[in-house]
Design brief:
Blueprint lengths: L2 E5 L2 H19 L4 H12 L2 E7 L4 E5 L22 H12 L4 E9 L2 E11 L5 E8 L1 H30 L3 E6 L4 E4 L1 H7 L3 H4 L10 H9 L15 E6 L5 E10 L8 E9 L1 H23 L3 E5 L5 E4 L1 H7 L3 H4 L13 H13 L5 E10 L5 E13 L2 E10 L1 H15 L9 H18 L3 E9 L1 H8 L1 H19 L4 E6 L2 E6 L5 H16 L2 E3 L3 E3 L2 E9 L6 H16 L6 E3 L2 H22 L3 E10 L5 E12 L3 E3 L5 H7 L2 H22 L4 E5 L10 H12 L6 E6 H5 L2 H13 L3 E7 L6 H6 L4 E4 L1 H4 L6 H16 L3 E4 L5 H9 L4 E2 L10 H9 L12
Parallel strand pairs: 22-23, 25-27, 27-28, 28-29, 29-30, 30-31, 31-32
Antiparallel strand pairs: 1-4, 2-3, 2-6, 4-5, 5-6, 7-8, 7-11, 9-10, 10-11, 12-13, 12-16, 14-15, 15-16, 17-19, 17-22, 18-19, 20-21, 24-25, 24-32, 25-26
Length: about 850
Amino acid sequence: MRKVSRLDDLAGRQFADALTSMALDALAEPGGKVDQRLRGIASNLGIALFAVDADGHFTRCFGQGLRRLGLSDGALVGEPVSVFGPLGESLFRQVLDGEGAVYEIEGRGRGGAWASRLYAVPLPEGAGALAVSLDVTDQVHAQRLLVEREREARQSEARFRLLAEHAPIGIFIVGNDSALDYVNPQLAEMLQIPRAEAEGRRWLEFVHPDDLERAQALDIAAPSLTGTMPPPFEFRLLRADGSFLWVRARFAVMRDWGEFEVVAVGTVADVTDTVDAANRLRESDNRTRAILEAAAEGIVTCDEQMRIVEFNAAAERICGYDSTEVIGSHVSVLIADDQKVLFEHAFGEYLSGERTGVVGPVEVHVRRPDGQVVPVELTVTDVETASGRLFIGMVHDISERKAFELELEHLATHDQLTGLPNRVLLMAQLAATLDRARLHGRPVAVLFVGLHRIKLVTDTLGHGAGDELVKVAAQRLVEVVGLRGTVARFGGDQFVVFSDELDDVGDAVWLASELVEAMKTPFQLGEDDEAFISADVGIAFSPNGAGTAETLVSNADVAYYQAKDRPDQDYDVFDAQMRAWVESHRKLEIALRYGIDRDEFELHYQPIVELATGRVVGLEALARWNHPMLGLLAPKEFIPLAEDTGLIVPLGERLLTHACERLAAWQRRRPGLFVSVNLSGRQLPLPDLVQKVEHCLQRAGADPAGLHIELTETILLRDVEAAATSLEALKRIGVKLCLDDFGTGYSSLSYLWRFPIDTLKVDRSFVSRLGSGDREESIVAMIVGMAGALNLDVVAEGVECAVHAERLLSLGCRLGQGFHFARPCPPAEIDRLLDGAGVRAAGVVDS
């Protein structure tokens, strides 16, 4: 025996008392009627009866219950109770002490585990004890099995609740009335209501009305569904705020599960994003299909045998075939004859696997049924389908684009106004001509033609007239050249003629003279206007096609500018000396730019004196360049270059600053002294000219009245109105204006009246001839008289000797400047001159 439990079992005690009474009677009369009946009961009911004397030895044992212990009737007679171990002896002592009771005893015998209920009582007068054992092995096992199953059920339910409470999806249980018996937190969150409010409501209440009919058809309460799992069901789950979620629900239909009278257990997963994505994909597919149907691009689909299987409406329009005419035909039926072989070869590479993926876009010529060839752009891709490999071709009609490209190419290579080749095409054609000439040993001549006075026509008659003049002039050039060469417009009023049909330089010169003469004939503009223009021509000649197109055009350009500067000739031929001059010119320009940055320029000043007294009243500022290699350079060596390159603007600003600084210093020593500064034609139109002049004066602290600005008539006549506006603005800040080289230009009285001039400077060409005749003196006298009438001062330039000074004084001229008085000199020498008595007055004879 391993375990004993003392029991308070009233029914057991009553049963034991009855058996004990019978046992006592049987003990009193062994073999009697009661003894036999008791044995019969014990043999049939699995009972074992034990009698123990006062010494603790078994006196009787019989009954079916002994078989559980592997014993036979009487097997224990004479044995002590200690055969059942200390527990058996302890039990016997308790009974002898008058503690009879009912016990459950468990053990293991030969027949395996057993359990019995033992009813033990003491015998009268301490004669021993009597025990009756009832076999309850089967009952105990059954009870324990029930307890174990209940425990497992509780554990299973606990695991379910743990899983359900923390699952990432909604979980629910539906009862017989379709009400929700259980809702986990996740499902309650989806519904946006507390679990207590959800539980007890029918699950159909949370189904969107549009999905209710489908939900009702899924009768999860139907007995026929018990033990089944219907397919997933997607519907819209209504939420407390009126919104909905797309969910996918799964049911497992069953009955009677744990504490629930279950109809179904289910899960609910939020698939809103999935459904939305599917809807978007479906919409995208629908849009794609609609786009393809309405696409402007042709779509032609072929199978692996290159048979056409699809041919959309755009393909019909582009190729000129109805889809019924070409579906099933080989795709080459669409291809123009000159491309069939190439096309079939390319697709042969596709079919053999040598090429995969996307091919194109490539230009293909499609032949329509009427024989018209249409250029298209074809892009092909291959796709694998369940029915095999397909080739999808996107066909784009590029007829208009090709026409536009041709037009664009013409615009890019031809001058829009004259229709002649432009500079781009000129260079390409000339390069090709040079290649041919080198191959055949032929000479090539390039003539650079510049037209003059075109701008005058544009300024007076308008841009339309100017354009018309250029067009007519271009036509004349083409007519003169004829088949001997090609005429191209280089830009503006410049043209280039090149030819490989001229045998020598003499032929090129003859052609140049023809071109010049053609431009001399008047040009009729409209019905009432005529224009007269002229031309200069620069010639570059390559005896055997040597050199590049750029070099020849550049050389001809250099020769053109040389011809332009020569008054006696309308053309010039390029030679090595010209190239040296160009290179020198280029290097000088570079040096000029650096010289301005390094402040290598200074001003020398030539006195302007009173002819009568020799007193210095003013100074003309003249630029000098301290070139680091060439020494001190006079204005004529760099001012024209500065004008051409535009560098005269920054140079002029620096020189003006220096002049204002010296003016301020000399004004403090000699009040009333003025300084004349020459203004370039590029400076006058500048919008900030007046501000810069005023700034220089203010910064130097000079009196504006002491600054005289000299301009030539040519500068003023470029734009009369703009010039007048600028001069009036200069006058407002207090500076004086001087008209330089008067008498050499237009010298119009109307211009003198129009411009706010203060001083006229008589050009040295008139002064140099004084004393040689009355005519020159009359001209000077007229200028001086006119100036006096207009209340203008007069300064005579180029006074080289006493005769000049005397004659000028006699003609009424008050002021003069020239080598007779002083050469231009640095400021330090001017300081010494101002500190002295002055210079020679008129009447002083040169020694």
